[in-house]
């Protein structure tokens, strides 16, 4: 009796040891190393615009391809409070005919906030861009309760539309290079002509360097993704 109990216990123990051993062995066999870089690079695919995740570009960049007709659509968000036709009535906000280029708070008889009256800026491209992005960031204390437009393309289109309504400010030239393929190409073509000693030394410009994700798209070694401009503003 005693003997049998021991035998059974022995078998049970033995089976346990074998099972444990087996699980250790298979664990070793099938243990997958987590790759350092997830995903796999696709040969010959260059990440579009390398800087796509970069901070927002200056508004002039977007203005270069802005569309006033699309801006008229965006203006629908403003039309609850603003007219923009010549001689249009003031509503919750002042009439906006020919406002681009004018000093702030220029519409006679509109009860502007002291904040806007005392800001002392004019509605140039930069200022208007900042305003429609975040009125209360540009002018703390403004009465314009509009959250703002986060997409730079929407703002550029809207600004082009505003400018077409009674104003005609010259559109600022787009900023040089940075992500504009045509201009980068032109720069590269220019480089040897610029005629420094170093024409045969391959020193990449910042733009060129940014164009080379080293075959590792979006993985380690790819350009770091910094936050959006929205996040940076906090
Ligand atoms: C909820 C109503 C409301 C909406 C929506 C609104 N605004 Fe306004 N807006 C105002 C008010 C009120 C003022 C006056 C602000 C002050 O005095 O501080 C104003 C002022 C302005 C001014 C200054 C005009 C001047 O004479 O200096 C501009 C430019 C302007 N708004 C553009 C826009 C645009 C563009 C949009 C759409 C993206 C928009 N607003 C949406 C209410 C609004």
TrEMBL record:
Entry annotated with the keyword Metal-binding: yes
Chain segments carrying region Disordered: 165-234
Transmembrane segments: 12-30
UniProt domain Cytochrome c: residue ranges: 66-166
Keyword line: Electron transport, Heme, Iron, Membrane, Metal-binding, Transmembrane, Transmembrane helix, Transport
SUPFAM superfamilies documented for this protein: Cytochrome c (SSF46626)
Keyword Transmembrane: yes
Source domain of life: Bacteria
Protein name per its UniProtKB record: Cytochrome c family protein
Species assigned in the record: Sphingosinicella rhizophila
């Amino acid at each position: 009796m005693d003997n049998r109990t021991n035998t059974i216990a022995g078998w049970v123990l033995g089976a346990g040891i074998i099972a444990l051993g087996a699980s250790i062995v298979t664990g070793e066999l099938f243990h997958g190393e987590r790759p350092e870089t997830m995903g796999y690079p696709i040969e010959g695919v260059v990440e579009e615009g390398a800087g796509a995740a970069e901070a927002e570009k200056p508004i002039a960049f977007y203005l270069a391809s802005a569309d006033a007709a699309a801006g008229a659509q965006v203006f629908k968000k403003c039309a609850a409070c603003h007219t923009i036709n010549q001689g249009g009535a003031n509503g919750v906000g002042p009439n906006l005919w020919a406002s681009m280029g004018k000093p702030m708070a220029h519409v006679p008889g509109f009860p502007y906030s002291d904040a806007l009256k005392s800001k002392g800026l004019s509605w140039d491209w930069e200022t208007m861009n900042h305003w429609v992005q975040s009125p209360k960031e540009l002018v703390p204390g403004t009465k314009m309760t509009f959250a703002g437009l986060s997409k730079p393309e929407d703002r550029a289109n809207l600004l082009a539309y505003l400018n077409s309504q009674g104003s005609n400010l010259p559109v600022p030239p787009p900023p040089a290079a940075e992500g504009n393929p045509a201009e980068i190409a032109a720069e590269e073509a220019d480089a040897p002509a610029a005629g420094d000693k170093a024409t045969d030394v391959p020193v990449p410009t910042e733009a060129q360097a940014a164009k080379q994700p080293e075959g590792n798209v979006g993985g380690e070694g790819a350009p770091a993704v910094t936050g959006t401009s929205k996040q940076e503003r906090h």
